[in-house]
Design a protein that fits this description.
Layout lengths: L7 E8 L5 E8 L6 E5 L5 E2 L8 E5 L2 E7 L1 E9 L9 E13 L3 E13 L11 H9 L9 E7 L2 E7 L9 E6 L12 E4 L4 E6 L4 H4 L2 E9 L7 E9 L3 H19 L8 E3 L3
Parallel strand pairs: 10-16
Antiparallel strand pairs: 1-7, 2-6, 3-8, 4-7, 5-6, 8-9, 10-11, 11-14, 12-15, 13-14, 13-17, 15-16
Length: about 270
């Protein structure tokens, strides 16, 4: 049900046959992002699509970002406070998407959801688990994990310092907010450092001069403790990442030394496919 004046969440649910995929908001080297065009009753408004973190999809020499099997794309709707309990409302939308395997097929659907208006709107138990999983995949903002980005010689390096008590990470994967930020098909090299972690990203030749921030979604393996993925929008410094890492490592080491001891280790790993 819809409660007057109370924001509620709807989802576009896409279920895919094995081997097929649809695309994230930045589709990567090929593809098209799913869109939703709303047709709402008077006084209603719709928020933007809330995108769960994507997966890397390699097809020949191209790398795309998207979803396989099933995805729920969430959006918040705001109804007017003047709705009268006992009425019903019709939520309508037209969605367009591109579904791909060896070939790509454009698809669309006209959708409608009839909902009663009630004083209170309890959650529908049939969808609690699916909505919970979709929300768990939404990138979160965190002030606890500290990030810096550096660019040099065709490579951007993202350096991440973990908060106290954070779980050990076995891998990181970065999904850029916009096209042209990184070379999508190149493997991202994950590194443990004295200060935390580093992820090395190959960049297009044109990116050094016209890119000021490293914006996108960072996904952890297994997770960040409180979230699976983090939103990033980090200024890129045109400096040596090796020197920056040394400075960050030195500061961290000194702080640890004053705190009672130093424990340093480093090894390398790649984010699993």
């Amino acid at each position: 049900a819809v409660a007057p004046g109370r924001t509620f969440t709807v989802a576009l649910r896409l279920r895919l046959e094995d081997g097929w995929h649809v695309y994230w908001k930045n589709p990567g080297d090929s593809g098209m992002a799913t869109s939703i065009a709303w047709a709402l009753p008077a006084g209603f408004s719709a928020g933007a699509i809330q995108w769960p973190h994507p997966a890397r999809i390699d097809t020949g020499p191209l790398t795309s970002y998207g979803y396989e099997r099933e995805v729920l794309l969430l959006a918040n709707l705001q109804p007017p406070a003047a709705l009268a309990p006992g009425e019903s409302v019709s939520i309508r939308a037209k969605s367009d998407w591109l579904v791909c395997k060896e070939i790509c097929l454009p698809a669309s659907a006209d959708l409608a959801l009839e909902l009663p208006v009630a004083v209170t709107a309890p959650a529908d138990p049939r969808w609690l688990s699916a909505f919970g999983e979709a929300r768990a995949r939404l990138p979160a903002r965190s002030r606890d994990w500290q990030a810096q980005a550096f660019h040099r010689d065709g490579e951007s390096t993202l350096r991440l310092v973990a908060p106290a008590g954070a779980p050990r990470l076995d891998g990181l994967a970065f999904f850029p907010e916009r096209e042209g930020l990184i070379r999508n098909a190149e493997r991202q090299r994950f590194e443990r450092t004295q200060a935390g972690y580093a992820l090395h990203l190959k960049t297009p030749a044109h990116s050094a001069g016209d890119t000021r921030t490293l914006a996108g979604v960072l996904v952890a393996q297994p997770d960040f403790g409180t979230a699976r993925a983090l939103e990033l929008d980090v200024p890129i410094q045109l400096a040596s990442p090796a020197r920056a890492g040394a400075r960050a490592g030195l500061v961290t080491a000194l702080l640890l030394a004053f705190g009672g001891g130093i424990c340093v280790g480093a090894d390398f790993a790649e984010f699993p496919d």
